[in-house]
Amino acid sequence: MSSKVNQLLRKAVEGQRLTSGEGLFLLEEADVLSLGRAAREVSLRRHPEGYRTYNIDRNINYSNVCAAVCDFCAFYRKKNDEDAYVLDRETLYQKFDELIAIGGEQVLMQGGLHPDLKLEWYEDLLRDLKTRYPSVNLHAFSPPEIWFFHKLNKIPLRDVLVRLKEAGLGSIPGGGGEILVDRVRSEITRGKCMTDEWLEVMRVAHQIGLRSTATMMFGHIETLAERIEHLDRVRQLQDETGGFTAFICWTFQPEHTDMADVPPVGPFEYLKTQAVSRIYLDNVENVQSSWVTQGQKIGQLGLLFGANDMGSLMLEENVVSAAGTTHQLTLDQIRSSIAELGYTPRQRNVFYELVPEEEEVVLKEPPSNALPIVG
């Protein structure tokens, strides 16, 4: 390990902020094990407690109709496609009921950019679901969706977010971030919000009291410098608002997409990038491991490379699995992955508040008629 790498890692472990140039140097030059050790030290300084967390939620894609064209997406359809859909309320109720039956308390609800659904449709949906399921947090609508609501309805962005919050929106997922660099976004997607627009949705959401996650999908056409630029934009906004609860990165899954010829990056690159993310994002409290794209063992190893959270038991996942990735974990496997590392597994909510131990779900599994647990 070079003296400069050692110096920068020591700087990070001691709690000093790295510059973008220093972050890039580590991503380019540091070996994965040194990065992992440093990221673990940073994580332990922030999270000295003897537990690591997980969540139980369901990812419901209320529609697959999308006006945007993303080369990396195998899920979207145009509204006249034979397999295009918008879920009816009874189907949604069934999905919520199945989640609650296994102890879930959050729904991650996202769709495409539907050209025909007005803001009132989304407000009615939120009100209905919140009235029927008051204990379930509605973690819904990624920044590209919300920006699309704003443009389609010609309503100020703040008004859109206020109306959604008043209708029952509890928090916002960090989807659609991909790489927050306009060069990358303009090459791999058309008709979708750009970097400043994605960040503006999050900024305004935080200003009105909503919390959100931040994400990064990497391993396609971006450079290492652009990965750091993405992290830097997240860090800058977090300095301003403090509204991000967690950061999650995952690798691009090329199968069945228009970018199927892009060689997928593997666990080595994933662990290295997650470690640098933990080191660089000194103002984001939580980092979530991605077993969804990496599988159980690498997801578990992520807890030794800077993550303090094992992610979610997802009763249903459609977007990543449409691209060919179908890792599956049970609740017992998530809990044992944490316990094998010497930590107590603890269930949390989207705000990283621990569920009281007497209410935690330990052995319950989905009903036999539920959709498979797919990540």
What does this structure look like?
- The protein has one domain: Aldolase class I (TIM Barrel, Alpha-Beta Barrel), CATH 3.20.20.70.
- The chain is built from 15 helices and 11 strands.
- The protein has helices at 3-13, 20-29, 32-46, 89-101, 119-132, 143-153, 157-167, 182-188, 195-207, 224-241, 267-280, 291-294, 296-302, 319-322, 331-339, and strands at 51-61, 69-70, 106-110, 137-140, 171-172, 189-190, 211-218, 244-251, 286-288, 309-314, 344-347.
- The strands form 3 sheets. Strands 1, 3, 4, 10 and 11 form a 5-stranded parallel beta sheet that branches. Strands 5-7-8-9 form a 4-stranded parallel beta sheet. The protein has a two-stranded antiparallel sheet with strand order 2-6.
- Helix 5 links the parallel strand 3 and strand 4.
- Mean pLDDT is 88; it is low at 317-325 and 363-375.
- It catalyses: dehypoxanthine futalosine + S-adenosyl-L-methionine = cyclic dehypoxanthinylfutalosinate + 5'-deoxyadenosine + L-methionine + H(+).
- Pfam families: CofH_C, Radical_SAM.
- S-adenosyl-L-methionine binds at residues 72, 178.
Shape: globular
Class by alpha and beta content: alpha/beta
Largest sheet: 5 strands, parallel
Count of separate DSSP helical elements: 15
**Helical proportion?**
40-55%
Q: Mean of the pLDDT scores?
A: 88
Q: How do the SSEs run, as a string of H and E? A: HHHEEHEHEHHEHEHEHEHEHHEHHE
Strand proportion: 5-15%
> Could you say how many structural domains there are in total?
1
How many extended strands?
Answer: 11
The residue ranges in which pLDDT falls below 50 over 5 or more consecutive positions are 317-325, 363-375
What is CATH's topology name? TIM Barrel
Kindly provide the radius of gyration, computed on alpha-carbon positions and rounded to a whole number of angstroms.
Answer: 20 Å
- CATH-defined architecture: Alpha-Beta Barrel
Separation of the first and last Cα atoms = 36 Å
**CATH hierarchy, class:** Alpha Beta
In CATH, the homologous superfamily goes by the name Aldolase class I
Catalytic activity: dehypoxanthine futalosine + S-adenosyl-L-methionine = cyclic dehypoxanthinylfutalosinate + 5'-deoxyadenosine + L-methionine + H(+)
Protein name: Cyclic dehypoxanthine futalosine synthase
Function: Radical SAM enzyme that catalyzes the cyclization of dehypoxanthine futalosine (DHFL) into cyclic dehypoxanthine futalosine (CDHFL), a step in the biosynthesis of menaquinone (MK, vitamin K2).
Binding site for (3R)-3-methyl-D-ornithine: 142, 290, 312
